[in-house]
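thoughts on my protein:
***
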Amino acid sequence: MDKGYEKERFEKLGIKTSVAKKFRKFCRKMSCSQSMGLLLMIDFFEEHGISPKESLGPNMQTLESKIKKRINAVIAIMRDVEKTQTKPTVAMLQSLFEVDEPKKKPLILEKKYAGDKQKEPKFREKKSTNDKP
């Protein structure tokens, strides 16, 4: 039984036999009673504000093209955000977390001379002649 319509009585509708067979087949496919199937159809047309007499061809195509345009606009916005915000932020974070070993600087005291030849120091300590033991 149809929920909410149990106490209502049935009415007869005058429809052609071929249409009745097609309608019954549709209701079986939708797994609902004939009353509920007809009610669903009427509610659908009223809710969407369309008429069964009009063709949905051009209306559906324009709707589809509008949706595609909006999707393309959203994709363009996402790419722009990725390019201007996400990638630079990721690069900054990666540079912060990279751990490079600091370059080993030689001490000031250690001087490397070119070749094996040792150079004379620039200053020498004077040997004092006054020191007599």
Summary: Residues 16 and 22 are 10 Å apart (CA to CA). The chain has three helices and no strands.
